[in-house]
Amino acid sequence: MAEKSPDFSGSVDQCPALSPEQRMQSPGIGASKWVRLNVGGTYFLTTRQTLCRDSKSFLYRLCQADPNLDSDKDETGAYLIDRDPTYFGPVLNYLRHGKLVLNIGLAEEGVLEEAEFYNIPSLIKLIKDKIRERDCKTVQLPIKHVYRVLQCQEEELTQMVSTMSDGWKFEQLVSIGSSYNYGNEDQAEFLCVVSKELHNQSYGTSSEPSEKAKILQEQGSRM
To answer: Are 78 and 161 in a shared domain?
Structure first.
């Protein structure tokens, strides 16, 4: 005789229906893996897994509903964070894929401020290294100069050196002897080497020569 299957209809507990807010707050249920953030008026949608990448961070505590963390929500249920959204994007992307990607013109210092606020040590170190590398490149750029060689007579020398302007400075004086007689006196001639720094030139793109070979000879001219 076939056995009668047991009837569980009267003994099975029914799971209570959850409201949308409860579903968002209950791990592992439906849309609970998604988190909506309102950062300075701009909305970001990401996952709890992304925000929990660093267990020491502010965002990790936010997802864990830390009672010591004062986290309000707006009318849409998004967490309110009073920070600059421009610099939050790189922070969120770093948590997503582990790389620091900055748009052109975005200051590293601004992203560093956000990384420190959200307390993400690995990102803080990465940005500080990037800033240090940037500053070292700026300091190590060689200063370029343009050089000129001016030919003048002895009587013009003092006036020429004393009237140099616009950043030109004296470098070297070379006597080339006498070229002609003026009355009964020989007029000594000199080559005067002067230089000037090149400003606002991008390294490697300057149209000026890179060596001290640019010589403009000017007969009897002054600065």
So the answer is: no
Q: How many structural domains is the chain composed of?
A: 2
N-to-C CA span, the chain: 122
Note whether 119 and 59 are same-domain residues.
yes
How many whole angstroms separate alpha carbon 94 and alpha carbon 72?
A: 24
Let me know whether 70 and 151 are in one domain.
Answer: no
58: in domain: yes
Q: How far apart are CA 47 and CA 212, in angstroms?
A: 60
Q: Report pLDDT digits (tens) over 134-183.
A: 888 766 567 788 888 888 887 777 777 777 777 788 888 888 876 555 55
Query: Among 64, 59, 70, 68, which Cα is nearest to 118's?
Result: 59
For residue 102, the SS3 value is: coil
Q: What is the pTM of this model?
A: 0.50
Q: For 194, which DSSP code?
A: E
Burial of 65 (0-12, 13-18, 19+ CB in 10 A): exposed
The SS3 of residue 217 is coil
Tokens of 39: 């950062």
Give the pLDDT confidence of 85-110 residue by residue, as tens digits.
999 999 999 999 999 999 999 999 99
Provide the CATH number for the domain around residue 157: 3.30.70.2000
Range of the domain at 133: 34-138
Does residue 40 sit in the same domain as residue 125? yes
Which of 66, 39, 36, 35 lies closest to 49, judged by CA?
Answer: 35
* Cβ-based neighbour number of residue 127 at 10 Å: 25
